[in-house]
Amino acid sequence: MPPAPLEFWFDLASAYSCLSAVRIGSVASGLELRWRPFLLGPIFKAQGWDDSPFNLYPAKGRWMWRDVPRRGARSGLKMRQPSVFPRHSVLACRVALVALMQGWGEDCVRATFRAEFEHDADISSPEVMTRLVTELGHDGAATVARAQTQPIKDALRAYTDEASRRGIFGAPTFMVGDELFWGDDRLEDAVAWARGERPAA
Amino acid sequence: MPPAPLEFWFDLASAYSCLSAVRIGSVASGLELRWRPFLLGPIFKAQGWDDSPFNLYPAKGRWMWRDVPRRGARSGLKMRQPSVFPRHSVLACRVALVALMQGWGEDCVRATFRAEFEHDADISSPEVMTRLVTELGHDGAATVARAQTQPIKDALRAYTDEASRRGIFGAPTFMVGDELFWGDDRLEDAVAWARGERPAA
Questions:
Q1: What is the CA radius of gyration of chain B?
Q2: Above pLDDT 90, what percent of chain A?
């Protein structure tokens, strides 16, 4: 059997998604990767949360900002707690969608995550996103303008609806067909599954 | 610097704690291990939950019962969703305390976890716990009787209070001094930390 495609579901506001975005290319090498931006907000709202669980549960939040930099250091990231968390990521996710359609999405996603979590950039700002895209060698103004058109808005909403329908409850999530893997720490499990490996028991 | 002691905080109702109990001996070989039973109930209550988050958030629960058997298979466990989850674990945690004081606690904890998650045993039952201890070659009736005395009740309460005070919000948790590591998937990080390894960034 050929390996199955691996879907990578992420929100640009999610620190753990940043960890996966940076390392998925090497961990999942040889697999067909499908990058799927979506919004956690509506998913959390359906679970009764109006904020990130890392803010709602302060002990968990304190731990997370120790854990994330520690894990990021393995990929050469210097992550730190941004001045605002979570950032509003609607614009950044839409920009990512445009970039993915044009074939430079992976670079765009990684650059956005690094700007946010290493350099405290406000990724909700059109100016910040315009500059970020420009620095990647693309047309910043045109990309941000296109990100705010109805077809792109609809596409992000469709991914978010699909995430909810398929049982996604957090980010990052990896899907191999209907098999769900939640969390950056399950990336290796998802890759093994996509390659056809199955646990013995 | 000599390696630091590694504290293993677990609740016998916690499926992810079962995963750690079975493998911590080999992963943390050479380290001084301190086994710390505590009750998640009061910790969850303080976060506003009156049940396991895996029951409160059904999508997360569905995933967990896929994830746990998959992870357990690596340690040779055949875990499955018990008919009741979470089990009331007060008695089992008290029995574990008695056994830890007498030097056979690690065997007792592992046997209790396996009875619960492989064979659906009701670990809240004094009869079940008496039989389990007897099968380990110890005095089942005397152990269960001692588990229900005030000093043991107080000791379990003291550990639960300590867990809360030190910022523990879930199980399993590993502590190296004040450094906290949450989740079976952070056992390796905790062991590295106890051995003095520090991330580069």
A1: 16
A2: 88
Q: How far apart are CA A69 and CA A74, in angstroms?
A: 9
Helices in chain B by DSSP H: which ranges? 15-27, 40-46, 53-56, 58-73, 90-101, 105-119, 126-135, 140-147, 150-165, 187-194
Partner residue opposite A47 with nearest CB, options B57, B67, B69: B57
- Provide CB contacts within 8 A for B24, sequence distance 6+: B8, B33, B187
Q: Are B109 and B96 in contact (CB under 8 A)?
A: yes
DSSP class of residue B185 equals: G
* pLDDT above 80: residue A125: yes
Residue A46 has pLDDT above 90, yes or no: no
pLDDT in the model for residue A201: 56
Say which DSSP state A184 is in: G
Q: Do A66 and B186 touch (CB under 8 A)?
A: no
A55 Cβ neighbours under 8 A, 6+ residues apart: A61, A85, A86
Q: Do B78 and A201 touch (CB under 8 A)?
A: yes
Contact A109, A14 (CB under 8 A): no
Planar angle of CA A191, B188, B199, nearest 5 degrees: 95
CB atoms B73 and A200 under 8 Å: yes
What ipTM does this complex have? 0.89
Nearest to B47 among A57, A167, A201 (CB): A57
Q: Are A37 and A156 in contact, with CB atoms under 8 Å apart?
A: yes
B141/chain A closest Cα distance in angstroms = 34
Q: Do B169 and A63 touch (CB under 8 A)?
A: yes
Asked if A59 lies within 8 A of B169 by C-beta distance, the reply is: yes
To the nearest whole Å, the CA of A151 is away from the closest chain B CA by 29
Subunit contact B47:A70, Cβ cutoff 8 A: no
pTM: 0.93
Q: How far is B70 from chain A (nearest CA, A)?
A: 6
